[in-house]
Structure formats: structure tokens, C-alpha cells
Amino acid sequence: MAERMLKFVTLGRAMPEKREAEERRHDFREIYADFARAKAAEQASRCSQCGVPYCQTHCPLHNNIPDWLRMTAEGRLEEAYEIAQSTNSFPEICGRICPQDRLCEGHCVIEQAGHGTVTIGAIERFITDTAWEEGWVRPPRPLRERSESVGIIGSGPAGLACADMLRRAGVQVTVYDRADRAGGLLTYGIPGFKLEKDVVMRRIAQLQEGGVEFVLGCEVGRDLSFDAIRGRHDAVLIATGVYRAREIEGANAPGILPALDYLTASNRKGFGDEVPAFDDGHLNARGKRVIVIGGGDTAMDCVRTAIRQGAASVRCLYRRDRANMPGSQREVANAEEEGVEFVWLAAPAGFLTDPATGAVRAVRVERMRLGAPDASGRRMPEPSGEISEEPADLVIKALGFEPEDLPRLWGVPGLEVTRWGTVRAEFGTGRTNIEGVFAAGDIVRGASLVVWAIRDGREAAAAILRYLAQSETAPRIAAE
Fold it and tell me: Any idea where the Dihydroprymidine dehydrogenase domain is (predicted)?
């Protein structure tokens, strides 16, 4: 093994080939190519096999990264895949969209020593794409079927990860979602240039083949009551995510849009759907001066989508500086290559509208300066009083998401929520205050990363299995 590993001193870091910016800014295909087998093995061999693998520690799923890197370096790819999927329900998705520069790769020991991090994400993608091609990825096939039934509300990463684990244990699983396709933000929130949709759809199709039932176009509280779902199942998981956009005061003129509305329309067009609001220009950036407000990964998705739609110009306003932004630095660099301009230390101070149409025509921008650190350690932005105007035909608000008022919408006043509106659930299990009801993902922790949602869904599945095992035949929960 030693001969195959520890090559970081003689081999430099290499990423898969990236398409030229001028080419990729005209389509929604993924921008990175796959590693060739020899290149993946070579890059995996750079792993130092350190005794304390910080890459694994800083992965929310605690993936056994050193071991599957070693298997890849030795050409044992099926074993590498088996190790990767043992802790991660969807490694092909995480390999594409995880911010590895902030997680595993950002804590690589050889990176800290100045040798350049191991390209963990690209190797994970190579392993799992190879596994799909070779037929190593198989639907859930439980050793025995169980009579217990679990209902999952929400088909995003937390709900799907929970469904996968429960089906592998033989539990009957039904997933309810108000959208017409499963996948949540994986399907409608993340653009194809980061996550092509056939990657998501094939995983959902595999879950269906493995026995997961999907009830789509079903909005809880309108089409089916929460109590009715509880009455059908032995346990219920709430995994709705958070979708309500944070607002900016005065941001209600035509031409000012929530990020998710904009991204959903673009993704629907990619599926070939009829989207009248896109076709009439309302949700389309073509030919427009676009300003995106925000500095997270959603803002990066918006600016790069606008470029691909043929915007006249795209600028991103963020109230802190580059070093203090929450989004992936890799995504920022990709956006800049594609023609996005970032305006750091800038916040909206109001909007100007066209007197004739009422539509937005400019954003009043206030320059900011950084003050003392906040509770997270990042320096707080403070207004400087310096105001300028930025012309705009389309303004996209990408300031994050908040939970919907589920107790009111679902008619379940007894469901406890936090002061932020997220569902109150026990750490590590997802248990809520209602018997047999669990919660996982963003609806518990707030808007976060897909990898955290997968972890939450897997932990909730383990807790649900323990709950069902309390008796040989778990009693059907009576609706309250």
C-alpha cells in the first residue's frame, strides 16, 4: 500500500478538465469532465493516509474518505464504491454539489502542509459514476419485508435519504410531495450546470424500483390532512425543507423576484415544461441588466443562471467582503470566469421604479464597512452612508430561506416549533413532541447544505427503526 499512496510530494494536485467559460456560459451542462481512470487513481494516491483524517471528521456524514481513496489508487473501484455508499445515500450527488473547499478538502492535512489538497469531490464523483455505469448501484432489496409503514412529507435529500434507509430495512415507505417531480431543491433549486437532472431522476427511479411509493402533487393541509397521513402510517417524518424567501423592505415592484421562483422556472424549462412566466420574460434574464442580492450558494446559482440565459450584464451585491461570504469560493471563481461582476461591501438601500410601468429600474446601493465580529466570528457589516445607484431590469433576492408556518398550514397547533419557526426536534433522532412524528433536514436546522440534510435523514431513519422496534407490531397511531 505504501508504494501506491503518499505521493503528494511528487504529484501535484489536479482537477478534472473544466470546459472553457465561453463555451459553458451558453448551456446548462455540468462544467467539469470526469476523471479518466488512471488520473483518478493517480490523484487518489496523493492521500497521506494520516492517522487522524480531518477530511473524514469535517464531513457531515463522516465518510471513510481515506479508505475509498486507497481503494481507488489500487484500482479496486467496486470496493471503493461500497465504502462510499455505506455512509452516504447519494454519493454521486455530494461529489457534485458539496462545497468540498469548506468541508473535506478544506481540512486536508497535506493542504495544510502546502502540497495542495486531494481532489476528494472529483474522485467521489468518478467512483460513483463508474458504479452506475458498471451496474454496482442497486435498488433497495431488503432481506425481508416488514408490515410497518412510514409516511415521509417532502422528497428532498433528507426525505429521500430516510426513505432509502427505511426500505433497505424492509419498511413500507410512502413519500408525499406537493411538487410534480420528486427531489425537492435537487430537482428544482439547483441548476443543471452543477447537478444535471438525469443524475437526480435515476436515483428517484431506483428508489421507486426498490419499493418506495411517491405521491406527488399532494399538498399537506390542502389535498390531504396531516392527521390523515398519521392515520395511514406507523410513523411520520417531516422533511419539507424551507422555501419561504427572506424579504427586503420595499422589494415588491415588478422585476424583483425571489431566487427560488427564478431558479425553478429555469429548471422547469430544462425539463421541457410549459412555463408561461418564463416565456413572457417575467422569469427570464435574457437581454436584461441583472442584479442578484446575496452571497450564498443560491446567489451563485442565480448569477450563473442569468449568464446562461443571455443577460446583458450580471452583478452580485454582497454586504461583506469576499473572505467573509458564505458561498463556495470555487463557485465564485467559476462565476467570475463566466462574466459575473461582484460588488463587495454593498447592500440594497432601496429600489427605484419606472414611473410609467412601476417596474424596477435601479437599486440604491449603500457601501458597507466591516465592524466587530458577530457570534459566528464573521465581522459585521456596518453602513457607511455612501449611496449610489445601480441600473437594473431584473433584481433577484437570494437572501436565504425561512420555514413556512407548518402548525397553521397543516392545522396542527400542537406541533412545537422554535422561535425561528423551524420544527423543534430532538438532536440526533429528529423526534418531535408528537408521538411517532419525526423531523429532519432544513425544516429542523434551517437552510443548510444537502450533505447535512442527508445525514439528518439517515439519523431519523435509524431513530424511526428503533421506534418501530418498541413492539413486535407497532400500533397504528390514532390521529389526534
Answer: 24-135
* pLDDT at residue 322 greater than cutoff 70: yes
Query: What is the Rg, in whole angstroms, of the alpha carbon atoms belonging to the chain?
Result: 23
Residues 191 and 87 in one domain: no
Look at the block and give the residue holding cell 458504479.
131
Residue owning grid cell 410534480:
180
**Short-list 178, 152, 183, 232, CA closest to 439:** 152
Residue 475: predicted pLDDT = 47
One domain for residues 238 and 253: no
pLDDT digits over 50-89, tens only? 888 999 999 999 999 999 999 999 999 999 999 999 999 9
Position 59 in a domain: yes
Residue 476 pLDDT > 60: no
Reduce the DSSP state of residue 395 to 3 states and report it.
strand
Using alpha carbons only, give the angle 72, 77, 81 rounded to the nearest 5 degrees. 100
> Is the Cβ–Cβ distance between 443 and 239 less than 8 Å?
yes
- Tell me the CATH number at 52: 1.10.1060.10
- Residue-wise pLDDT tens digits, 225-256: 999 999 999 999 999 999 999 888 888 899 99
| Joined grid coordinates for residue 438 | 419525526
